[in-house]
Amino acid sequence: MLTENLKLVTTKDHMQIAIWEIFDSEKRHNVSNLSAHKAQNIFLTHGTFSDKKTCLRIAEYLAALGHRCYIMEWRGHGASEIPKDKFNFETIATYDFDATFRYFFDELKLDNLHCVTHSGGGIGLTMFLIQNPLYIDKINSISMFACQAYGAALNPISYARILTAKIFTRLFGYIPAKKLNMGPINESYHTMKQWYDWNLHRNFNSSFFIKQSDINESDNESNNESGNNKHTSHKSTAQTVMADTELFDYRQHMPKITTPIYAISAKGDKLISPTRGCQLLFNDFNNPANVFREYSLSNGDSDDYTHSRIMTSRNAAKEIWPTVAAWIDKHSR
């Protein structure tokens, strides 16, 4: 029997973030019949316009295999607190992810963790791990569905589309996702501006004041902790929002994320996360252990898929979710 529990965690900027725990109460932590490994802990999170529903079905699938799943909802999404202040992708990476991972490792003291993300959730995870490299060795595997940050405007037509979307969003102040049938959450211009700019300028620059010394300090903490093999209290490397004060390029630090990544793209995803953009992000991790897979009819799959169907459709449940479960199984310890 699948069980769903809600936990609210507090961020360092005093926001309440929802973490949904999904598990099979009958299997508990027993070994799955399909796996030679013990049950694993799996962190899932969504992207823009979304809430836990994007991740819920695959979480239930993984829970039925005997794993314990945790879905984090971004601030302003689902059961998480609605902020009064403006926020962007990096706010979520710096504060929401930080509170969630501190809960996992400081409070629950998990001894393993796998990550499954959709779209902007993968961008957030990438920024968070670069800010906090001490967590990299704690993560067994990552599966990224339809994730890209700076490769949606690689030709004149796609550039025009992204620029038009940015102008439209700025004029209206937000994207009416509900009316456009894009998802249950309308996103503000402030939230989306960072994504537009990354793609239009083809960079992955921070909007926060992040010093290289902070990253180096976090690296040293990671090395010390791995040597001592202890759980300690963790701090985020980016605490102060000072827009455009100093450019920190996340792209240059992506190879530091050595956790094996399974990157999944959809051929029918033409605007948000086109395959070329997903491949560009994938290449910048520069890890031969990583695997990239485009799902399409031409590759012998049952669908060309779209940005949402790649994770939530019946076809995805049949042919993609089992590959994610196999990736988790392969990297379990």
What is the N-to-C succession of helices and strands? EEEHEHEHEHEEHHEHEHHH
Q: Name the poorly predicted regions.
A: 29-34, 226-245
> Helicity, in percent?
25-40%
Terminal CA distance = 26 Å
Q: Which structural class is indicated by helix and strand composition? A: alpha/beta
Reading side by side through the largest sheet, how are the strands ordered?
1-2-4-3-5-6-9-10
Average pLDDT, to the nearest integer?
90
Count of helices? 10
Number of extended strands = 10
Q: Using only CA atoms, what is the Rg? A: 19 Å
Please give the oligomerization state of what you see.
Answer: single chain
Tell me, briefly, the overall form.
Answer: globular
Beta-strand residue percentage: 15-25%
Largest sheet: 8 strands, mixed
Describe this structure as you would to a colleague.
The protein is of the alpha/beta class. Helices cover 36% and strands 16% of the residues. It contains 10 helices and 10 strands. It has helices at 53-64, 89-107, 120-131, 156-172, 189-201, 212-228, 275-285, 309-312, 314-319, 321-330, and strands at 2-10, 16-24, 41-45, 68-73, 114-118, 141-145, 174-175, 187-188, 261-266, 291-295. Strands 1-2-4-3-5-6-9-10 form an 8-stranded mixed sheet, sandwiched between helices. The longest helix is centred in the N-terminal third of the chain and has 19 residues, at 89-107. It starts with a strand and ends with a helix. Residues 29-34 and 226-245 have low confidence and may be disordered.
